[in-house]
Amino acid sequence: MARRIGSRYVALKVLGRGASGTVWAGEGPEGPVAIKLLREDLASDEVLVARFVQERTALVSLDHPGIVGIHDLVVDGVDLALVMDLVNGPDLRTRLEKEGVLKPALAAAICADVADGLSAAHAEGVIHRDVKPENVLLDTAYGQIRARLTDFGIARLVDAPRRTRATRIIGTPDYLAPEIIEGLQPTAAVDVYALGTVLYELLTGWTPFGGGHPGAVLRRHVTEPVPGIPGLPAPVAEVLASCLSKAPAARLTAREVGERLRAALPALAGLPPFDVPAPDGGGHPDRGETPPPLPAGVVPLVSGTEPDASRDTHTNLVRPTFTAPPVTTPPRRRRPHQHRKRRRRAVAVIGTVFVLAVGGVGWWLTRSDDPPHDRRPAGSTVSPSVSAAAAGDGRADGAGPAPGWATWAQLPVAPVFLTGAPAAARPAGAPTFVVQRDGVGQPWFATDRDGTFEDWRKLPAFKAIEDLAVTAPGPGRVDVLAVSQDRHLYRSSFADGRWGDWTRIDAKTRITGAPAATATGDRLEILVCSGDTLMHGTLVGANWTGFDRITQAGAIEGAPAVTASAPGTMDAFVVGADDRELLHLAFVSGAWREPVPVGAVRAGGRPAAAWTPATGLTVVVPDTDGRLIGLVARADGWQPARLTPPAGLPKQDGAAPAAALTATGDRVDVYVLGPQRRVQVAPSA
Q1: Looking at the structure, do residues 108 and 55 belong to the same domain, yes or no?
Q2: Fewer CB atoms near the end CB (10 Å): N or C, the chain?
Q3: The one catalytic residue among 91, 113, 130, 280
Q4: Predicted confidence band at 683 (pLDDT cuts at 50, 70, 90)?
């Protein structure tokens, strides 16, 4: 039945109903339109109507292909309506319910369109504050899908502070940014966080923190890391990590999200949808499965067989009760709590990995028929700098037993989504410093005081595009090195209890990989890659030598590792570009020696190295299968060291994960970025 809206529009057919009103297909002076008729109780609120009128200009001015344009605002008696573009296609929630998950390329393209619309709105000072699949329409009018964002500003207007109880937070809990939950003033970054949640849901079928009581959902947004998506290509994983960062300043802008997702589309072409199981084994009603019942002791707060079409969380609330009869809920989309099933899976994976690791190490220790991979000089088993007799530098060669490591322990959860590989240093008279960058390159650090790591904290603002390097040049002193977007090298130093500003060390060499550094006395020795060439430079105080080419290394791949035991004496490790052979280069008496292969290891990622008189030279490197391999140098060659694999170690940027080492006395600790992007450490046993 037709209904006149104001003097210019006629509502003809109901398209859908939501929490804030009903959407009609209608006609206006310029042709077909969509008319969102708000609830009568909203239309009778004089303050709300005044706010809509006040915001009309801003809403109507949002003219962008990624935004469902608003033509008019009608206030007529009990009618309060928004007249909008009529979009030929369903909303994203309908598509997601039909398919469960989307192909990665389609998910990225949809979110890129939404990001473009958000960018245009943010440029006008408008924040959406309720980005979710229900508010994304899929326009198919031109033969291809174009995502368009609708309901700009509705959540903010309808749920203005005057209308909101002190215990209520504006927005949909599954998509709320942590800063909103903590009561901070929302910025454009809240829309980016919500968009990242939508992208995660399109790829997996689940929001990363959804499930259970809304209070639990809100807590998880603030405290828990984002569950990883196995097999997700690195460019998209990095965008997702940035969008879902706990810190608003660490997130990409909406414009950057759109640009990066479009740049990642070639890497996603042809990939099938990800098969990510329900977090704790619960059913998926949208795929024809039956969800588990609510736990005993809770009952649905809102009864009925049909959830609200808007999926607002008020239909999903539960409350405790003193009687605990078993109750079931009507079929609906559940995003259950994620931990119990994940723990069971983790235990099974750890057991399997341990058995395979023991068998693999046993095979390694007993094999005798491997073909040689030896470029070392005749009669030599290890590099001259390792053998005190050959090098003449008076160093002990670690003749004792090979070090072993205890089981892995986790560092505190970072407030941001960490990426890349960690770096670590243990200065004399100070705690261990572990540094790592987040999804947008901001460096963070955590310190270990008496065996207990403190929470992660941010270094001075910076955007690093490669993994960091850290070294301890003196008591209580730490230097962090980073490569900026200009591909030059910068340093920030920790001294007297505070971090200094970032200063540029070198402005000539274009660096193409992560730096490596070691301190020998007052000298900071730095190795970097430029293309496939290894470069070496020395910083003494404020005096910088510049980078020189190390021709002995030949063509290398990736980033180097370096350690030292005395001023002017270094051991560097690189991966050969031709065959991924792990090579050892010694710097003795002012000159680099020829490279020597380390055992028969084929490296799948960046090595890490450390040296102490008690343990000798220790190297940890991921092999081409993604396993972490521990090696120690002895006078008769390189010997394997026992290193229990961390469970579920993910690949980083498509490569095997890199590690970091710290060494003092007879202790060598190994650090990696493990499951859920959480740094973990294996202390010396």
Answers
A1: no
A2: N
A3: 130
A4: confident
